[in-house]
Amino acid sequence: MTLLEYRRKLGWSLSELARRAGLDFNTTKRAESGEPVASRTATALARALSEGLGQTILPSDIDGLNVNI
What we know:
Elements: H1 3-10, H2 14-21, H3 25-32, H4 39-53
């Protein structure tokens, strides 16, 4: 599932996801559009999704998330 699909499943706006992940809106928008993001950003997004869904989501579970190594 993509970041957008997870976000929609939770009924969250992009701003809400950014807030829950503790990230800047533009950083979150770049992640959702497939631009490269730092591993700490990917981890923060996965953690926010995990908390929202009540299950463990790893960065590798998010299709299309482009993590800089």
